[in-house]
Amino acid sequence: MTTLTFRRELPRVSAAMLAKFAGAAVGHVVDASGRRGALDTALRPLVCPHPFAGSALTVATVPSDNLAPYAALSVAQPGDVLVIAAEGCRTVSVVGDVLAGMAKNAGVVAIVADGMVRDIDGLEAVNIPIFALGLSPNSPQKNGPGRIGFAVAIGGSVIDQGDLVLGDRNGLCVVKRSSVDAVLSALEKVRVKEKGMDAAVAGGAKLPDWLPAYLDEHPPIVVD
Q1: Tens-level pLDDT at each residue, the chain (224 residues)
Q2: I need a labelling partner for 134 at 20 to 30 A (CA). Which of 4, 84, 182, 221 fits?
Q3: What ranges do the domains of the chain cover?
């Protein structure tokens, strides 16, 4: 009986484009995406030694099973983010340090799991970002079924194979593959604006420069 289904073609964001997002602050990318795109904060950075940006390698598995995440490693490429939809299972882990270590060896830059993980000391030693719902020492089965390379619902968003996924200690965001060019263009403007605001704070500013004019045009109601 077939327990796994692979998508034949696995689109990805190009390595050249990923390089342009390297080190980008998630908050800046969200601003460049119309102030939206962050995933649910239930997906916590259990290990986050550095920011990351990569192409989603999407995996759907049933609760309490991690055959599909392991199988996804057979098609993983450098720059991938392993995105595992485990139906929000909080009783059994879906990723441990062995899977994470093999994923890193395959070039995976981060793991995002809508479920639990285990072996936190080992995960920290692997030293790639791991976002999940929490920790559980309970072990999964390896029976399937599972699907690799298809759209998954995770963190309140639908992530398609090859979408851009970014993360840092503030959280996660996703940019649709079709929108990457537009978001990158907007991101450059956000970066310039942020540098200007940081410089203003460093220079002793007590108010944003736009606030006085706004208050003049929209006088506040003053009450005793």
Answers
A1: 569 999 999 999 999 999 999 999 999 999 999 999 999 999 999 999 999 999 999 999 999 999 999 999 999 999 999 999 999 999 999 999 999 999 999 999 999 999 999 999 999 999 999 999 999 999 999 999 999 999 999 999 999 999 999 999 999 999 999 999 999 999 999 999 999 999 999 999 999 999 999 999 999 999 98
A2: 4
A3: 4-186
- Are the C-beta atoms of residues 102 and 128 closer than 8 Å to each other? no
- Considering the entire predicted model, what is its pTM? 0.94
- Contact between 174 and 37 under an 8 Å Cβ cutoff? The reply is yes
62, 87 contact by CB (below 8 A): yes
Torsion sign (Cα): 156, 159, 39, 80: positive
Please give the CATH topology (third level) of the domain spanning 4-186. Answer: Glucose Oxidase; domain 1 (3.50.30)
What letter represents residue 76's amino acid?
A
